[in-house]
Amino acid sequence: MKFAGKAEFIGDRGYRLMPLRFRRLPWDNERVFVSSLAGDWLTMSRETLDRVVAGTVGSDDPLLADLEARHLIATDPDRTTLAPLLSQYRTRKAYLQSGPALHIFVVSLRCHHTCAYCQVSRQPTTKTAFDMSGTAARHAVERLFEWPSRTLTVEFQGGEPLLHFDQVKAITEMIEQRNRDENRSLRFVIASTLHDLTDDQLAFMRDHEFQLSTSLDGPEWLHNDNRPRPGRDSYRRTVEGIERGRRALGQDAVSALTTLTNRSLEVPEAIIDEYRKLGFHSIFLRPLSPYGFARKTQGRHGYAISDFLRFYAIALEHILAVNRSGYAMEESYASLLLSQLMTPFAHGYVDLRSPTGAGLGAVVYDYDGQVYPSDEARMLAAMGDHTFAMGRVDEPVSAWLSSPAMQQVLAGGVAEALPTCSDCAYVPLCGADPIDHYARQGNVFGHRPSSEFCEKQMGLFDLLLERWEQASAADRLIMEEWASRAESSGPSVEEAA
Q1: Are β-strands 41-45 and 28-36 bridged in parallel, bridged antiparallel, or unpaired?
Q2: Closest Cα partner for 408 from 375, 382, 442?
Q3: Which string of b and e fits 131-168 if b means at least 16 CB within 10 Å?
Q4: CA–CA gap between residue 417 and residue 426 (Å, rounded)
Q5: What DSSP element (H or E) covers 329?
Q6: Is residue 133 pLDDT above 90, yes or no?
Q7: Cα–Cα distance for residue pair 213/253, rounded to 1 Å
Q8: How many alpha carbons lie under 13 Å from residue 191 in its C-beta half-sphere?
Q9: DSSP 212-234
Q10: Does this model's pTM top 0.90?
């Protein structure tokens, strides 16, 4: 629920309410989480909130300073402007100033895996018709530099992008050649299984300062079960690829994430221990998505969000215990949410933005020259639904932004304007994700009370807030470090092959 800020001063204590929202804490119904328009917040008793709203907080009460510092009240009767609050709001939404910084090039749909939860429409390794052509690549590079962002992350995806590495090289060289005049800050990433890496590929990546992102679902038995390939050697090949990538590019140049099936939910500790064994200091615990083969196999591999949240709570405790033992490790999504809670700054995660990051924070150039506002939009198109196809790479960016696809995305892309979201205390810290709601519920607005996205987001914010309130000084320091690292990270959708 929210209260609108009032123009007049209330009570006899000389302060005025600013726009605020509140949420009862699920672990303590007598207390509430209260947030400002810009995402500053306090927790307090319900009785205290009633006093704040009634205007009965005394001028000598220390709470008054806390409320004003978090833009929940204003005490200066001569100050009628919202400038301090709006300045904070602009800081949190700063990602809107520069346009998309994440550009995904899908160079091939070919892949040698048959993952049951695969989100894309993979193709056999021999079907080169599903490779990006040189013409499409050249047009995509031209469009890349039409965007104003001074920092560009170029991520190569598939399928398996290593199967069309000649195009990866060609695009990289075209971008760097053009950038001699543009002088942008460039970052290159390949999302790959890392199988069949060659020395020549690694040498090129080293010369152009690539980073590698891969999928590692946990212990060998689980990874091989989730990501089968002929010979049942997926885990071995992945680990070998990780080791080769680290030797060539550096220890920190290789990252991994896990996609969680129902079998994964049974072994949170084993998944985390596997990442520690292999020397990773970050893990992304990613639930299944409703796209591609993942939708077809939902009955075999899927689960309720409530099951995911129970798994996540156990996993979070284990990761904190790992940190207390002296080994630094973060859960990437927890770090992002904590950065929203603990810092005032914009972040790089495009799926957690309002206005939406789809088309405004990221753009996808598909192998066939089609352009999409997100990877999820591309996946829907592969399933036969082209609702979010913005245009083609030989069209100007202005045409994409005015396309019917982008108009739909924007219509459902502002969480603060959506029913139910507009009253949620977490909305200043959250995102809209209209394409996910379209995929799950049939329209870009979604029905938020039954939305799995909202159930997950509120559940995770609740969990992290509860854990923060009950944490020891040592655990709080760990969580603060996670938040700080997430705030300084670049744009990401946390995808891997």
Answers
A1: antiparallel
A2: 442
A3: bbeeebbebbbebbbebebeebbbbbbbbbbbbbbebb
A4: 13
A5: none
A6: yes
A7: 8
A8: 23
A9: EEEE--SSHHHHHHHS--TTS-H
A10: yes
